[in-house]
Amino acid sequence: MMQITEKIVIFEELFQTNMSNRMKKRTLLILILAAFFTAGAYSDLPEEAIAIDSTVISPVDSVASEAEVAPEPPGEKRPEVYLFPIREQIMPSMARLTERCIAEATARGSDYVVIDLNTYGGLVDAADKIRTLILEAPMPVYAFINNQAASAGALIAIAANAIYMRSGASIGAATVVRQDGEVVPDKYQSFMRGMMRATAEAHGKVPEVQGRDTVWRWFRDPLIAEAMVDPTIEVPGLIDGTKVLTLTAEEAVRWHYCEGKAASVEEVLVLAGVKDYDLYEYKLSGLDRLLGFLTNPAFQGILIMLIIGGIYFELQTPGIGFPLFISIIAALLYFAPLYVEGLLAYWELILFLIGIALIMVEVFATPGFGVLGVAGIVAVVTGLVFAAIDIDLLKYVPSGEVPVAYIFRPFAMVIISVTAGLLLSIWLGRRFLTGHSVLRERVVLTSSMGVEEGWVSREGERGLIGMHGVATTVLRPTGKIRINALYYEAAAEEGFFIEKGTEVVVVRDEGGVLYCRTKK
């Protein structure tokens, strides 16, 4: 290609021979400027393009090529709305449910989350965790106050991107109180005021036209949020500072604490401008219902009775295995759901297992029933009790936010179930192991053979009924006794324990086992 400077020289010679001097200067100036612009345009291209060979792609061809390889835009996805309820007291379990639902909505790629809210409040810490989850959610979260958002519920609602209320609903009354209604000390109120104010401020400010001017106002007025906690705060035109603030639906709309009134979730979405959407509603799964059944206190009491009964029968009839198997299954059904629900700590299960081990050592390795046995029983009961208690709630007992009765109920349930299981096991042991009943004959092998079938009873051979002896081991109820320097397999009649060294009398001789009673 001929260089640009060479072109300029040729054009200059041509103009000098054919044009006037004035015209030559003007034309030369135009050509020089055009040459510089052309040189700048070519300098942006790669060297291969400047050489102008057949590999250079024209702009039209380039656009056509890109259009051929560019993927077609995917079809528009209908927005998904994830709906879940908060209709109970705000407890750690509700915080765990909120965390699980928002995580599931995020995993599903939901575009909106709607919380169907109806609660009279609960624990401040649990509400704080929920409002943090809402504020940090990757999608807009709308609160539909379906009756009440009182106390901790007000904090949760204010955290939402938008609030919608049913006619007759209310929001506020967030003063921290104990279970008996008594107001807690000011340090708790200060903490709640700070959270309410910070949550309102988190939504920032929005422009508003007032007359001919545009001013910036808080999206949620922090002063109103604080007035829901502190009865001394005055909000001009709304409350005079003599009582705690609670807003009706009409007042909430007027003071920008509600985006509109709605009678259903569908109306909420219409007001929010969400159209042509898919609604996914969180519902209890089969596993959730099963966990709810297994954690029911009544069923937990039955499981505890099976645990205690299985251990008792295994100690009474060592080697059978079936009672121990029932006890293990019952323990798994008791502890596993509590672990899944986040209520079980490892130390509670470890303490329970240590208690079982101490009882086994006391029974099989040490005589009598002493310190190890008592310690084992205490460890078992403690492990069962604290496994049934939400440990997160214990710190609220000193302040009175959670009553002592809440902790006492699981304790009473475990004690009653352990006692009932032990008494029932003793009664059943006497009934089936040594008693005489129609049910025992169906469950226990009690058939006998007479002389006509060729059977000679060992009772007749040994002649030991009525003989006196001494227990050489503890009869629990089985063990050994000594009669005239000879040792025999023996069992305590009617399932009673007989201590080692006690004088006994033989009352029955069946199946090679001497059934004894304490000598009177």
Oligomeric nature of the chains: single chain
Roughly how many Å is the radius of gyration? 43 Å
Number of strands: 15
Under the CATH scheme, the architecture of the largest domain is Alpha-Beta Complex
Please, what is the average pLDDT? 77
Helical amount:
40-55%
- How many strands, which pairing sense, and closed or not: the largest β-sheet? 8 strands, mixed
Report the end-to-end length measured between terminal Cα atoms.
132 Å
CATH topology of the largest domain: 2-enoyl-CoA Hydratase, Chain A, domain 1
Gross morphology: elongated
CATH superfamily membership of the largest domain, which one?
Answer: 2-enoyl-CoA Hydratase, Chain A, domain 1
Give the count of helical stretches. Answer: 19
What is the name of the CATH class of the largest domain? Alpha Beta
Number of domains: 4
Structural class: alpha/beta
User: Are there runs of 5+ residues with pLDDT below 50, and where?
Assistant: 1-25, 27-72, 454-460
Task: Kindly estimate the percentage of residues that lie in beta strands according to DSSP.
Answer: 15-25%
